[in-house]
Amino acid sequence: MSNVNKASIPTAQALDAWSNQSSETPNSLTIIADSNIASLDDFFNAQTLGQEIYQTVTVIKVAGRDIDAQLLAKAQPDVLLVRSVTPVNASLLADNDSVRFVGSATIGTDHIDQDYLIQRNIRFANAAGCSKHSVAQYVLTAILTLRPKYWQQPSTLGIIGLGNIGSTLAQYAHDLGWQVLGYDPLLPESSINNASFEQVITQSDAISLHVPLTQQDDSDYPTWHLIDQAALAAMPADTLLINSARGPVIDAAALTSDIAETKRQVALDVFEHEPQVFAPLLNQLALATPHIAGYTLEGKLRGTQMVYDALCEQLALAPTQSMHQLLPLNTYLWSELKAHPERLIRFYDIRQDDKDLRAKLSDGQVSGADFDKLRREYRLRREWQR
Ligand SMILES: NC(=O)C1=CN([C@@H]2O[C@H](COP(=O)(O)OP(=O)(O)OC[C@H]3O[C@@H](n4cnc5c(N)ncnc54)[C@H](O)[C@@H]3O)[C@@H](O)[C@H]2O)C=CC1
Ligand SMILES: O=C(O)C(=O)[C@H](O)COP(=O)(O)O
């Protein structure tokens, strides 16, 4: 049996050409995938998935925001692979009865209606923890760029949400001799889960948010507008606030007024009205980046690897591709940076990302198209080895 990788088709427009040729081959596997998933061709092809079972593996690559119900109804894929910008729910899948597996190469799952997928008996996998070091390193870079004195001076880092990213950030904070005040009502008390929400808000030098976006229906501790006008009013003006979780965790209108009044330093990687970013907030931020905290080569490849492994399990195949075969040598060592703080800009020049985003400001906003373009064309950083 020969395995033929029929094609990786780059755009939705190519779907018409593909569907005219498609002869509904038995044992064919059709995948619709967000073209922003790293190394799609390396992980999803007839060699890595065929293995005597699938004669044809077709990957239709589409921009995440263009994956819609019409496309799914027409292509009738077996597998849907997304990142964070494609809402996967009844509106997307109602007219489709072919999808058996949905993979999101991301940590966050707020774009996925998991109850609906269970109802439809569609297996779901995400990439929990894939970029936890990358995001933690983004946060450290933001803090140390804005407050270089914290390399030497003991400070208190408040962490809200102590899952994969929050707990990883706490390890780096301890490496630097910082005190950690952590709050996570869904985890047992621990050496880092050691404070109330109020204590974190009122007693930290810097606060970093690492919660999923949840609403009242999903959680006893919803995070939508967790940082609202009251939380900001309780936060001392010199407390640095960083959000790399999801935009709506902070009430953007309240934050805009708060910074105008307090001149607080705030670093945002995510925005309430993303992909649009509005000037009144952007112009007051100490640092602003286009949702790239997790965008390292390692973080993105790990995300792809995790959904590939889960798909292999679903198909009862042994995984044959590994991200380690695809990674160039990594020379970024956390121990080196700790010994030479002046090299931070070489490890991650966050001000360049900030500058690139602000350069897109026009007519009072960064448009969704420009925000997405910055992300699509982002030169992936390397994750520091710890
Ligand atoms: N900016 C970026 O590029 C990235 C952003 N993210 C975002 O970061 C979020 C966190 O990621 P992980 O740490 O890997 O997730 P995780 O699921 O491992 O941890 C989240 C933690 O938040 C806690 N939590 C939930 N509600 C809370 C509340 N009201 N108050 C305090 N804690 C609460 C949970 O108990 C859990 O321990 C993701 O859900 C995603 O939205 C993730 C990756 C990249
Ligand atoms: O993993 C997550 O959760 C994230 O926020 C991603 O890193 C965001 O990347 P995209 O999925 O929007 O490319």
Automatic annotation (TrEMBL):
<dbReference type="Pfam" id="PF02826">
    <property type="entry name" value="2-Hacid_dh_C"/>
</dbReference>
<keyword id="KW-0664">Pyridoxine biosynthesis</keyword>
<feature type="active site">
    <location>
        <position position="246"/>
    </location>
</feature>
<keyword id="KW-0560">Oxidoreductase</keyword>
<dbReference type="InterPro" id="IPR036291">
    <property type="entry name" value="NAD(P)-bd_dom_sf"/>
</dbReference>
<feature type="binding site">
    <location>
        <position position="184"/>
    </location>
    <ligand>
        <name>NAD(+)</name>
    </ligand>
</feature>
<feature type="binding site">
    <location>
        <position position="84"/>
    </location>
    <ligand>
        <name>substrate</name>
    </ligand>
</feature>
<feature type="domain" description="D-isomer specific 2-hydroxyacid dehydrogenase NAD-binding">
    <location>
        <begin position="154"/>
        <end position="293"/>
    </location>
</feature>
<protein>
    <recommendedName>
        <fullName>Erythronate-4-phosphate dehydrogenase</fullName>
        <ecNumber>1.1.1.290</ecNumber>
    </recommendedName>
</protein>
<dbReference type="InterPro" id="IPR038251">
    <property type="entry name" value="PdxB_dimer_sf"/>
</dbReference>
<comment type="pathway">
    <text>Cofactor biosynthesis; pyridoxine 5'-phosphate biosynthesis; pyridoxine 5'-phosphate from D-erythrose 4-phosphate: step 2/5.</text>
</comment>
<keyword id="KW-0520">NAD</keyword>
<dbReference type="Pfam" id="PF11890">
    <property type="entry name" value="DUF3410"/>
</dbReference>
<dbReference type="InterPro" id="IPR050418">
    <property type="entry name" value="D-iso_2-hydroxyacid_DH_PdxB"/>
</dbReference>
<feature type="binding site">
    <location>
        <position position="106"/>
    </location>
    <ligand>
        <name>substrate</name>
    </ligand>
</feature>
<dbReference type="InterPro" id="IPR006140">
    <property type="entry name" value="D-isomer_DH_NAD-bd"/>
</dbReference>
<comment type="similarity">
    <text>Belongs to the D-isomer specific 2-hydroxyacid dehydrogenase family. PdxB subfamily.</text>
</comment>
<dbReference type="InterPro" id="IPR024531">
    <property type="entry name" value="Erythronate-4-P_DHase_dimer"/>
</dbReference>
<keyword id="KW-0963">Cytoplasm</keyword>
<feature type="domain" description="Erythronate-4-phosphate dehydrogenase dimerisation">
    <location>
        <begin position="346"/>
        <end position="385"/>
    </location>
</feature>
<dbReference type="Pfam" id="PF00389">
    <property type="entry name" value="2-Hacid_dh"/>
</dbReference>
<feature type="binding site">
    <location>
        <position position="294"/>
    </location>
    <ligand>
        <name>NAD(+)</name>
    </ligand>
</feature>
<feature type="binding site">
    <location>
        <position position="295"/>
    </location>
    <ligand>
        <name>substrate</name>
    </ligand>
</feature>
<dbReference type="InterPro" id="IPR020921">
    <property type="entry name" value="Erythronate-4-P_DHase"/>
</dbReference>
<comment type="function">
    <text>Catalyzes the oxidation of erythronate-4-phosphate to 3-hydroxy-2-oxo-4-phosphonooxybutanoate.</text>
</comment>
<comment type="subunit">
    <text>Homodimer.</text>
</comment>
<feature type="active site" description="Proton donor">
    <location>
        <position position="291"/>
    </location>
</feature>
<dbReference type="InterPro" id="IPR006139">
    <property type="entry name" value="D-isomer_2_OHA_DH_cat_dom"/>
</dbReference>
<feature type="active site">
    <location>
        <position position="274"/>
    </location>
</feature>
<feature type="binding site">
    <location>
        <position position="269"/>
    </location>
    <ligand>
        <name>NAD(+)</name>
    </ligand>
</feature>
<feature type="domain" description="D-isomer specific 2-hydroxyacid dehydrogenase catalytic">
    <location>
        <begin position="56"/>
        <end position="315"/>
    </location>
</feature>
<dbReference type="InterPro" id="IPR029753">
    <property type="entry name" value="D-isomer_DH_CS"/>
</dbReference>
<dbReference type="InterPro" id="IPR029752">
    <property type="entry name" value="D-isomer_DH_CS1"/>
</dbReference>
